[in-house]
Design goal:
Blueprint lengths: L2 E6 L5 H15 L3 E6 L3 H5 L7 E7 L7 H10 L7 E9 L6 H9 L3 E10 L16 H4 L6 H21 L12 H15 L4 E3 L9 H5 L5 E4 L2 E4 L10 H5 L5 E3 L10 H8 L7
Parallel strand pairs: 1-2, 1-3, 3-4, 4-5
Antiparallel strand pairs: 6-9, 7-8
Length: about 280
């Protein structure tokens, strides 16, 4: 039986949808599958990766992956000098330009990428600021209509390439577009200045439930004297998780110019439009 471990990050929930579907389909192929959020670093430290097939899933933010979290996780991965196969997948709303960097870091740990694939999902960031009727709004706020079919095809290819890897290990090199790092930094600066500036909690709306405290992947939100506070606004990953999960809509970006909130309910309504497969 193939032992598959998926380490993933999901902010607003798009990537988790893909993770769950991949895990379900691989289990149907008699694989033993476990999925662990990348922020659970203590759990990752205790895993022997030498007998695992590794899956890594993440959303694309500003053209890149969540480097701080994944690089910590990769440092902990012990393969006993054995080459192990890995499949990478990511969700994106617009474009991806820096996945090759992650492929290289995995290779340094004897983790060889056998396949990688992107899946189009709604924008939980930029898309919230785009007015109705704007050009590309439907594209930004939609899942790929064939999302589940493409995930099924991806899992079929994963098992095929694992069999090939077991006969002769190989690595699918990652492509990093020239000047991608410059473009990523430029995108991040623009987002920080004009969109995701000054994460704010509306004290009047906040009911103190603490859900955001539990869900923040970097522990950047705390409960202090029955008040919810942000520790350091510069440490925010812009993953939107707290905004998505807040039951009272009390968390928002300081400019508060968003036209909508990417809540679970909003996401699930968009997902209903996607074709299902038997």
């Amino acid at each position: 039986m193939k032992e598959i471990l998926i380490i993933y990050f999901s902010g607003a929930g798009n990537t988790k949808i893909v993770v769950d579907e991949i895990a379900k389909l691989l289990k149907m192929k008699s694989c033993n599958v476990e999925a662990i959020p990348v922020e659970n670093i203590e759990s990752i430290k205790n895993i022997d990766f030498s007998d695992k097939i590794l899956g890594i899933g993440f959303p694309i933010y500003g053209g890149s992956y969540q480097q701080i979290l994944f690089e910590k996780a990769i440092e902990c991965m012990e393969t006993q000098n054995k080459k192990i196969p890995a499949f990478l997948f990511f969700t994106y709303a617009g474009f991806s330009i820096d996945a090759g960097t992650l492929v290289g870091k995995l290779k340094d740990k004897n983790i060889l990428t056998i396949i990688k694939k992107g899946f189009k999902c709604p924008s939980s960031g930029w898309g919230m600021f785009v007015p109705e009727g704007t050009l590309f709004i439907k594209k930004m706020l939609s899942f790929d209509n064939n999302l589940f079919l493409k995930i099924k095809e991806f899992t079929e290819e994963i098992t095929s390439r694992i069999d090939k890897f077991n006969k002769k290990p190989f690595n699918k090199s990652g492509l990093t577009i020239p000047m991608s790092r410059f473009l990523v930094k430029l995108t991040e600066k623009w987002e920080n200045k004009f969109l995701f500036n000054n994460l704010t909690i509306d004290k009047a709306k906040c009911n103190g439930c603490g859900l955001c405290v539990k869900k923040c992947p970097v522990g950047n939100i705390i409960k202090k004297e029955n008040r919810i506070e942000i520790v350091n606004k510069d440490h925010c990953l812009f993953c939107q998780r707290c905004i998505t999960m807040c039951p009272t809509g009390a968390i928002f970006w300081g400019s508060n110019k968003a036209h909508r909130r990417y809540t679970k309910e909003y996401r699930d309504e968009l997902l209903k439009k996607v074709k299902r497969i038997d």
